[in-house]
Amino acid sequence: MNAINVLDETGNDTRLAEQIHTMIAEAAPLVEKIAELSLPPTITYRLMSPEAWAQELSTCFYRQVLRETSGRALTSWEQRVIPRLPHGFRRAFLYAWVTEDAQVVTNRLLQPEVLLVPAALRHQGLLGAPDALCEKMVRPLVLMAQIAASQGAVAPARQWPISAQVPGHPVRRLLEGHAIWVSRQVAPLMLGSSSEERRRLHRSRFFWRRHILNLVVSQGRDLRYRKQGAWLVEQVVSGCGVERFNEVWTDPRLVPTFREFTRPHEWLQRLP
Q1: Vertex 54 angle, CA 156 and 52, to 5°
Q2: Does pTM surpass 0.85?
Q3: Where are the domains of the chain?
């Protein structure tokens, strides 16, 4: 049994926190069953204002960069750039929060937790689209399960070097694609057989609002890469099964290459 904590740090979203808690409690065993991965013993979601979210996220990412660069000699360029990262991260997050999904970070104890902005959910039209909101809340659960299975080998995605932060990086595409693939199977099980029909009714408004916001902030790259990652996971799992697919979480050499994201049969041949 997982301990579930949904913390309303905004002070204004108690009802939403209760709704998310109910969703997570129902979704957690389904995620473990479909992904064939175990979730961490404690699942924590934190509801935050955009400013607090940007500050906490920048702190967590900076802490991760320090862990990833610890124990090695830094170049002169790294010595100049790394101390400036918290300010750069925070500015970027304050600019992009309206399009952001819930973010999974590791805290000081290296335990995963989820940071999300209720205001972003409202801007994206999610509070009026239960199917889309369900998928959005389930995806972080999958990312947590990836971290628990990987123990740092593949997940969480690295923050350094800077090239690892690119949205289309293979590791990020794999993690997000797998989370989408699982969440799309969990949502209908939670919401009933009519889930797909309800999703179509909500999809037009949700999709276009989200799509326009994403185009403004990131030229649509994130949505395209995530869709491609989900397609790859679906193709490979259908060909080899979930157990064989899950070998990727413990061996970074098995992460698909840029080329393999459009040629799943080539990646399938490399899996043990």
Answers
A1: 120
A2: yes
A3: 3-270
